[in-house]
Design brief:
alpha/beta; elongated
Length: 397
């Protein structure tokens, strides 16, 4: 049976992706302004990435972005999307996250991963083959610290002795924790081992959609093995989207920008080859790797995600700048106005109430017309012809 939350959460996963020829100062400010916009529109979550190379993903410290955004927003929760655990000493990172938990009054979230860009690990002198093991080792220490335990632990890359946090978390028992998941068992297995949530960050890549049930199975198996539990409500699925008033308009908006992004970033910097089945925006949308179209297209795509995955708790849009700022902001507005209410219990009651009034309008509004007519009679004033005709139509109905 497919799990459907009573209120599906919506958010954004901001790597971010900015063209290398742009002003980086303005790009970072634009990121913060977008989250301000999402906060006003009622989005639930925003996740900031951590990257140190390749020139496109220019946030080095998601914690700094969270601290800045928390001062500008009111409601939206703010997460590290994700903190690359092998790059940090676990005690220092845990201490910083608990401080953020207090500074945001419980709006901070902790997303973790092994490090997505091999070029980052290369510069740090980290063997890429060790990153997933190090992620698990680090998270083991951090979760114990979050729980208030005194931790002594030594690995081949960090050591903690009699370590403890000075502050208890603001959020009880601690802030939400989610582990990045791509195609391997590493992410879901670590999430299950620690009873954490899952961030499925490769849903938009070839094969990402069909791998979703397997990822959840890995998480459940690992949770059972370690005496933990995982909840589909803590599973976040990520897809890029762009909405407009028509599908043709949406395709025109983002086709050129997406092509430039793939050619310059994936192919140019990372050496990733395009999909052999075709990499146009139309082909990617047909495969379900991106949502491009109208709000109705987005509703259909999210319903398909429920069917493919078996159920999840949060939909995250992968932030992009494939088109102008105005069209991008309009896309997020269309999602908030017409798509989010469908999955958050805010649509059906309005429709049902309208239908009830429409079905009973003659009975409901007839006394009002009679009362107005009586007021004219009591005042000794003749009824206007249009009112007489309206009352006659009401009696005939």
């Amino acid at each position: 049976m497919t799990y459907r939350p009573p209120r599906l959460r919506f958010g954004i996963f901001m790597a971010p992706f900015h063209r290398t020829e742009e002003n980086p100062t303005l790009s970072l400010e634009r990121d913060l302004e977008l989250v301000d916009h999402l906060d006003r529109l009622g989005y639930d979550e925003a996740w900031f990435g951590e990257h140190h190379s390749a020139g496109w993903e220019t946030i080095a410290s998601p914690e700094l972005m969270i601290a800045a955004s928390a001062q500008r927003t009111k409601h939206i929760k703010l997460g590290t999307g994700v903190s690359s655990l092998p790059y940090h000493h676990p005690l220092i990172l845990a201490d910083r996250m608990v401080q953020l938990d207090h500074m945001t009054r419980g709006r901070a979230m902790f997303g973790v991963g092994p490090g997505a860009l091999t070029s980052d690990a290369y510069q740090l002198g980290i063997d890429a083959l060790t990153q997933r093991t190090r992620m698990d080792e680090s998270l083991t220490a951090i979760m114990a610290l979050f729980r208030g335990e005194v931790v002594s632990m030594e690995t081949d890359w960090f050591k903690v002795q009699d370590a403890r946090l000075q502050l208890a978390p603001y959020t009880y028992p601690h802030m939400p924790v989610a582990v990045a998941s791509t195609f391997s068992p590493a992410g879901p297995t670590v999430a299950g081992k620690h009873g954490a949530g899952i961030l499925s960050v490769s849903t938009s890549r070839p094969g990402g959609l069909v791998s979703l049930p397997r990822a959840w199975q890995w998480a459940e198996e690992a949770a059972a093995e370690h005496g933990k539990s995982v909840s589909r409500d803590d599973w976040r699925l990520l897809l890029p989207f762009h909405l407009a008033d028509s599908k043709a308009e949406a395709m025109r908006d983002v086709g050129e920008g997406r092509e430039h992004f793939y050619r310059t970033y994936y192919e140019g910097a990372l050496g990733t080859q395009p999909n052999p089945d075709g990499n146009s925006i139309e082909q990617a949308a047909e495969r379900g790797e991106v949502i491009v179209g109208t709000p109705d297209d987005a509703i259909e795509a999210i319903e398909r995600l429920f069917e493919l995955s078996g159920g999840f708790g949060c939909f995250l849009g992968l932030a992009h700048e494939w088109t102008s700022r105005e069209k991008t902001w309009r896309s997020y507005e269309l999602m908030a106005r017409y798509v989010m209410p469908r999955f958050q219990g805010q649509f059906q009651r309005k429709q049902d109430n309208w239908q009830w009034v429409a079905d009973h309008k003659t009975t409901i509004f007839a006394p009002a017309a009679a009362a107005v007519g009586k007021a004219f009679v009591d005042a000794g004033v003749a009824l206007p012809d249009e009112m007489v005709q309206r009352m006659q139509r009401g009696r005939s109905e």
